[in-house]
Structure formats: C-alpha cells, structure tokens
Amino acid sequence: MTKKRNICLCLLAALCCLPAWSQQKNTAAAYEASIKKLYMAHLAISSLYVDSVNTDKLTEDAIVGMLKELDPHSAYSNAKDTKAMNEPLQGNFEGIGVQYNMLEDTLFVIQPVSKGPSEKAGILAGDRIISVNDTAIAGVKMSREEIMRRLKGPKGSIVRLGVVRNGIDEVLKFDVKRDKIPMTSVDAAYMVTPQTGLIRVSSFGAKTHEELKQAMNKLKEQGMKNLILDLQQNGGGYLGAAIDIANEFLDQNDLIVYTKGRRTPYTEYKAKGNGGFKDGKIAVLVDEYTASAAEIVTGAIQDHDRGIVIGRRTFGKGLVQRPLDLPDGSQLRLTIARYYTPVGRCIQKPYENGNRTSYNMDVINRYNRGELVHADSIHFPDSLKYKTLKKGRIVYGGGGIMPDYFIPLDTTKYTKYHRELVAKGIITNTTLRYSDRNRKKILSTYKSFDSFLKNYQVSDEELEILKEEAEKRSVKPKDEEERNKTLPQLKLQLKALLARDLWDMSEYFEVMNQENEAVQKAVELLEKK
User: Fold this and answer.
1) Distance (Å, rounded) from C-alpha 26 to C-alpha 232?
2) Range of the domain at 207
3) Is there a single domain that holds both residue 197 and residue 341?
4) Is 478 a catalytic residue?
5) Which of 304, 315, 290, 318 is nearest to 229 (CA)?
6) Which of 160, 182, 204 is the last residue in one of the domains?
7) DSSP tag of 204
8) 434 with 333, same domain?
9) How many Cα atoms occupy the beta-carbon half-sphere of 144 within 13 Å?
10) Would residue 303 show up in a list of annotated catalytic residues for this protein?
11) 114 tagged catalytic
12) What does the angle CA 347 – CA 353 – CA 356 come to, to the nearest 5 degrees?
C-alpha cells in the first residue's frame, strides 16, 4: 500500500512544481480534494474488488483517461515506450551498429555503421545474422522487436553473432562489443546543381543542429550558394534544435518564435546573428506531414522573407509539451503553451478537447476536400491574414504554414499495382536479393556513385526477380497498360533503393529527387536571375 501511496505523492509533487499551483488556496484545495477522490477510488478497487486487479494498469488507465479529455498532444507513455520514443531525439542508442532490413525471416545487413562495433568486428554489407548469443533468430518467426531487444544492450557488453556470408559454407561467429550508436537526422546532403545544395532533415533531435552545420560546411566547400532545406515529412522534435537551426539563417535579434500559455509566461526566442548561412538564397520544402519544430523553422524563414516555402500546407502542430518523468521511468507529456510565428500566427490547427478521432482524420479530410491537389480548395478568413515583416506579403494563420508556391499531390503517379508492390514489401525484397547477388559486379562496373547515377539502368534480371516475387504473393497488374504505366516510377525506386544499399540514404534521395517536382521548382526559383 505504501508503494501506491508513494506513486500518488510523487505525481502530486511533480505537478505541484508548475507555476502558481501552490499559491492559490481555492485551486489547491479543489486539487487536493480531486487527488483524494482519485486515490480513494484506486484504493477501494485494489482492496475490495471481487477479482484480483493489476494496480499498475489501473493507474496507467486513469492517467490515460484524464489525458483523453485534453488536447490531442498531451500523452502518457510507459517506461518501455518512453525509452524507445526518446532514442531518436537523443541522437544515439547502445547496440551493435548496423543498418538492416528483414528479408523474409532473416536479418539482412544493408550496411554496418561506419567505425561502429559491427564494422570493427568484421561484419560486412550483405551478411545475414541468424543467431544472437547462440539463440536462433532466423527461421523461428521471432518478432522484429524481440530481435532488436536481443541485439541492443549496455555499452561495453559483448554479444556473439552467428553470420551467414555469401561464398562461405560455414556459419561465421563474431564477438561484437556494443557501443553508443549515432542516430542521424540529416538524411541527405548533396549538390543538386553546381550552385544549389540540398539538405534533408528528418527530425529535430539533440544533435541535428551540429549535423546540419557539418552538412552546410561540406556543401559550401563544393560551391553551394543556394540551399534547399527539405523538411517534407519532418514530424518535429526539440524546440531548442529548431531555434538553433533557424538561427543559422536569420539576422541578430530576429524573432524566431514565441510561446505563451495560461500558466506559462510569454517567452521570445531570437536569433543571435552568428549563423553560417545568413546570405545565401533558401527554399524550404514542406508537406502535410511537416510538423511542430519543423513548422517553427519554416514560419520564421517565411515571416522574415528570408526564403521561399514550397509544397503543401503543413500539419499544424503548435502545442508545447512539457515532459514530466514519473518514478517508474514512464512519462507524462503535458501541453503547457502554444507556439506563435514572428508575425503572431498560431501554428496549431483547431481542435476540440477530447475529440482525437476528428483531429487524427484531418489530413484525410484535407485530401477529400481536394486541398492536397488544388490550392484554390484552401480558404482562409480575413481575420487570419498577416503580413510578413520585410516585404509585407500576405500570409495566413489558422493552423500550419501555407507555402508560397503550391505543389499538388500527384494522385496519378502510382498505380494500384505499384501500391500493392510497396505495401507487401516486394520492391524492398527485390532490391535486397538483387544487391546480394550483384554487389561486387555493380561496384566494379560503377567506380563511383556519380557514375552509377548517370549510367545505371535497372536490368531485365532485376525486373524478372520482382515479377517472380510479386506472383508468389499474388500481385499482378490488371493488364499490360497498367504494367507499362508502373514501370518508370518502379525503375526509379529500384535504382534509388539499390543506391541506398550500396552507398547510403543521401544517395537514395539523390536518385529519387531527380523526379521530385518540389525540388525541381526550388532549383528553378533559386537560380532565377
């Protein structure tokens, strides 16, 4: 009973740290009465209920039930989920260091992390890991989560891997010493043209700013004068990372974002003026999945007329969450304020407390209204009209950032046949099989990625492998017309995935972006005289 009481008291103490709670007697009395009521209900159920109950689950359900009545982004996560959720933003985890994919029921190594534990131990691209500490993980229908649990572990601990390698009959054994493995959030950085570079950022984590600076420096050495900052499908992350990144592009004392809430004081965040790309032209690419911290950067660049925004209206997530760590490692993330762009636009789209279903359907509703295809399907009232700070251009509030140049979603690009190939993992598996058989041949034929990019054509052999794989899974085009319509985009994707397997993610995007309308529009606008 003491343990349950301590949990309640710890939660109470954590929440009482919020400003002004303890200073208002009426509020404090009402709050104490509510906590007492909740505690008594919990005590009665755990002590008197006819059947045994899981008291930990009762507590978690009570927390989740309370949060459901609030905004869509206040949330609770148990200890396991909290750890998994925070790893990508913290910038590292402890493990063996491989990029991998599951080929049927076997872990297939795409690339070992450069200078990571597996590379140091001798693991190679194309290896298949079939056992961990002498326990089989291949051919036993083990879940991906369980396999990852076995591979991860404390820094310095040893894990023995059983590996099957092409051309070698015996199972190879490697003792790998686990270490900190970096998780990067800059997915791509390359020169699109001799003057224009592209950097794609997938999230805003603890190390994103440093990664971005390194990428910009590398591209500036290659002659970059203009930057395409690709924030498509970037779901956001840390506010601090967004502020640091926006600072790279803005002048001293330029307002980046401000926050305010009922109990949270008005707070401004301004640029320091020491950024590394304050003069070059910028285009920011966004879409309906660009959210939170990514919207802060986009809004600051647009409001200061620092660059052009290209794509579709962003998600509209402008609520500030404060994480409250609970004694068992779980976490409560409570919304305490809202974000506002420099001209005063609220990034957060409208929502109704307790109605998460409608909120979660928003992107689908946009599609059904035609907003993702036709810019004139988007309507803003005059009350949401604002002017940018330098040029006085009209921009709109009301949720999300509306781009300066609209790029419609191409609903005709992918056929039903293509969508089924993607959904069943057939395209990825085909690439893994083909690269496994032909890795040495391809790398000896194309001495560099540039040579591969310019000259490689998807072979009939690879298309035949895909066809066989698809037919095994009962996936076929309805007719020759659908097959022919699918081929151009399919070949592009196969080539991009092969580039990823032989090199890295940056090369994947460099291939795919050859047909990316937003990237092409960005180059056109940035290099316009």
Assistant:
1) 47
2) 186-409
3) yes
4) no
5) 290
6) 182
7) B
8) no
9) 7
10) yes
11) no
12) 85
Model confidence over 452-480: pLDDT tens digits? 999 999 999 899 989 988 998 899 999 99
Among all chains, which residue has been given the structure tokens 């890295």? 504
Distances (CA, A) of 268 to 112, 179, 337: 43, 39, 13
Tokens in use for 409? 């979603």
Whether 527 is in a domain gets the answer no
CA distances from 349 to 72, 286, 292 (A): 11, 16, 11
CA dist., res. 134 & res. 138, Å (int): 12
pLDDT of 470-520, one tens digit each? 998 899 999 999 999 999 999 999 999 999 989 989 999 999 999 999 999
Domain count, the chain: 4
The one-character DSSP state at 237 is: B
Catalytic residue among 287, 303, 404, 501: 303
Per the residue annotation, which of 131, 292, 435, 506 is the catalytic one? 292
* CATH code (residue 374): 3.90.226.10
131, 137 Cβ separation under 8 angstroms:
yes
With CA atoms as reference, report the closest residue to 211 among 239, 185, 247.
Answer: 185
Strands 267-270, 255-260: pairing kind: antiparallel
Instruction: For residues 248 and 99, state if they share a domain.
Output: no
Residues 361 and 279 in one domain: yes
Which residues of the chain, if any, have pLDDT below 70?
1-26, 87-92, 529
Is residue 375 domain-shared with residue 243, that is, in the same domain? Answer: yes
Task: Find the distance separating the first CA and the last CA of the chain, reported in whole Å.
Answer: 74
Q: Which of 317, 485, 495, 521 is catalytic?
A: 317
Angle, vertex CA 340, rays to CA 335 and CA 342, nearest 5: 155
The reported pLDDT for the residue numbered 88 is 63
Same domain, 330 and 273: yes
pLDDT at 25: 58
Same domain, 366 and 469: no
Tell me: do 199 and 59 sit in the same domain.
no
